[in-house]
Write the C-alpha cells for this entry.
Amino acid sequence: MSHEAVFQDTIPRPSIDRTDPSVSFTHFRQKLPHFIALTRLDRPIGIYLLLWPMLWALWFAAEGVPNLGVLVIFLIGTTLTRSAGCAINDYADRDFDGHVERTRHRPLATGALTSKDALVAAAILMLISFVLVLFTNQLTIALSFVAALLAGAYPFAKRYTHLPQVVLGAAFVFAIPMAYAAQINSVPAQAWWLFATAVIWSVGYDTLYAMADRSDDLKIGVKSAAILFGRYDLAIVGALQLFVLVALGVIGANAGRGTIYFCGLVAASGFVIYQLWICRHRKPEKCVQAFLNNSWMGMTIFIGLALDYAVTP
C-alpha cells in the first residue's frame, strides 16, 4: 500500500446527517412526486366519485344549501380520506401491483417509496381528517370511526370475496350518513336509503374498472365482481345503474323534489347508455373510460338537485 493510500485512509470521511433539516427537506422534496402518485392527487377521479354522493347528501339533509362550515369540512375531508385510502390500498397490493399492467408503475411497485412511507402518509392524512371531524358533533365523530374501518378493510377484502366493490362502495359513500349527522345531528331513513343507493352505484362503476384488470386478476388470484359476473357483466352493470336512477327518483319524490331534479336523472341516464355502449367489446381502455364517465353522471345528478332546491326550496 502506498504512503498516499495510507494518508487517504486516515482522512475522516464526511457523513450525511439525516437529522439536518435541510437534508430532510431535500429528501422529502425528491419523494414528493411519488407521494402525489401514491395518494392519486394527480388523478382526481376518485375524489369526484366521493364528492358527488357527499354533496347529494348535504343538499338533501339541508333541503338546499348546507352550512358553509360543514361544506368546507367535508370537501377537504373527502379529498384527504380518499388519498389515505389510496395509500392503504397500495400498501395492501404492494406484492400484486407489479404484476398488473395498469398498476406496475405505482410507487411501491417500483420501489420509489417504501411500505413505511405509505403507512405514514395514510396515518397523517387520516389524522388530519379526524381533526376536521372534531369541529362537527359527537354523532359525526362516532361515525368517522366506522368510515376509517371501512377504508382500511377494502384493500384486503379482494383476497376473500368476489364483491370487494361492496366494501369499497360503503367506504366511498359513508360520507353520506356523516353528512346528515353533521348537518342535522341525526341520520334519518332517507340518509340510509341514499347510502344504499350510492353503494350500488359504486359497485356498478367499479365493476367497469375491474373489467379492465380481469385478465391480470385471474392470473394473480385477486377476486372482483368482473370475474364473478363473467359474460353477464355489462347486463348486471346496466341493471345496477338503472336501479340507482330509479331509487334516486323515489328518494327525490319523497323529498318533494320537482321537474329540474328529475330532468337531471334523465340526463344522467344518457351517461349510463354511453358507458354500456363503449364497453360493448370489453376493451380495457374503454372500460376505464366508462368508469371515468361516472364522474359526469354524478355531477349531473347533483346539478339537477341543487338547481331544483334553488328554484323550489
Residues 18 and 27 are 9 Å apart (CA to CA). Residues 1-17 have pLDDT under 50 and may be disordered. The first helix runs from residue 3 to 9.
